[in-house]
């Protein structure tokens, strides 16, 4: 970065911080207030990417279809590959849901602190853990819902699902966005995703066309 761009970058952050704080006050919304806190405290977090309109659309879809197909009452939700905790914040923000607690698990040690900041309005019901979804103890933890909207990022979906106790409810998303380099396990269709996951029961299977790719979602049990 050149010296000439540094003040602009600082201005941009400050403007974004002021603007999100203002919007949060106007709409009286803890999620938007959380975004403002993230911009203020974690200037390097790529939160604009995690909360862009496509990411939000995919998570609104997840929330609505989960409610429709399985209801809104959950004791303990684990969100693996949870990144900055946006889906957790959106679930806490939705009064149609009654949620005991949410744990967000991610391999990247830069994201837990940001996820905690974003979800600080629900700090007593939220925790962010740095860890590998392939190494979590699902049998002891017994979450009643496991969410993985990062299936396109993991090498072997079925091997991961095999770690979950039989009967565990899951919500899975993947996509056909093959050209994105970090997407190591995209699927070409909903049918291919259904075969890849091999769920024992399926409550919902659908696709959401976006401009550059289609997102696929399965809700069911392992
Ligand atoms: C780019 S993000 C999320 C994209 C996705 N569309 C979403 O918003 O849910 C993918 C995340 O998966 C995480 N991840 C990849 N492999 C993982 C693993 N084995 N265990 C936990 N997290 C993992 C990455 O660190 C990253 O934060």
What's the helix and strand layout?
Blueprint: H1 5-27, H2 30-41, H3 47-50, H4 53-70, E1 73-80, H5 86-93, E2 98-106, H6 112-118, E3 126-130, H7 138-141, E4 145-148, H8 157-161, E5 169-175, H9 190-197, E6 201-209, E7 214-221
Helix pairs in contact: 1-2, 2-6, 4-5
Bound molecules: S-adenosylmethionine.
Residues 55, 80-81, 83, 105-108, 111, 132-134, 149-150, 153-154 line the site of S-adenosylmethionine.
Enumerate the strands of the largest sheet in spatial order, edge to edge or round the barrel: 3-2-1-4-5-7-6
State the helicity in percent bands.
40-55%
Number of DSSP-assigned strands: 7
How far is it from the N-terminal to the C-terminal residue, by CA?
48 Å
| Radius of gyration over all CA atoms, rounded | 18 Å
Overall 3D geometry? Answer: globular
In percent terms, what proportion of residues is strand? Answer: 15-25%
Bound molecules: S-adenosylmethionine
| Individual helix count | 9
Summarize model confidence as the mean pLDDT: 95
What kind of sheet is the major sheet?
Answer: 7 strands, mixed
Low-confidence stretches: none
Order of helices and strands: HHHHEHEHEHEHEHEE
């Amino acid at each position: 970065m050149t010296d000439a761009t540094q003040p602009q970058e600082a201005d941009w952050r400050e403007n974004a911080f002021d603007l999100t704080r203002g919007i949060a006050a106007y709409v009286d919304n803890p999620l938007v207030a959380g975004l403002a806190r993230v911009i203020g405290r974690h200037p390097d977090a790529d939160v604009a990417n995690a909360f862009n309109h496509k990411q939000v659309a995919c998570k609104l879809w997840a929330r609505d279809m989960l409610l429709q197909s399985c209801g809104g009452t959950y004791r303990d939700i684990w969100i693996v590959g949870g990144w900055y905790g946006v889906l957790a914040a959106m679930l806490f923000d939705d009064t149609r849901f009654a949620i005991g607690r949410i744990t967000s698990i991610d391999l990247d040690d830069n994201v837990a602190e940001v996820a905690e900041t974003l979800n600080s309005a629900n700090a007593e019901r939220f925790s962010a853990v740095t860890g590998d979804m392939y190494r979590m103890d699902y049998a002891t933890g017994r979450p009643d819902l496991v969410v993985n909207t990062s299936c396109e990022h993991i090498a072997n979906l079925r091997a991961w699902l095999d770690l979950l106790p039989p009967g565990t409810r899951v919500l899975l998303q993947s996509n056909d966005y093959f050209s994105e380099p970090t997407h190591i396990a995209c699927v070409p269709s909903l049918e291919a995703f259904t075969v890849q996951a091999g769920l024992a029961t399926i409550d919902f299977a659908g696709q959401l066309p976006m401009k550059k790719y289609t997102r696929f979602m399965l809700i069911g049990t392992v």
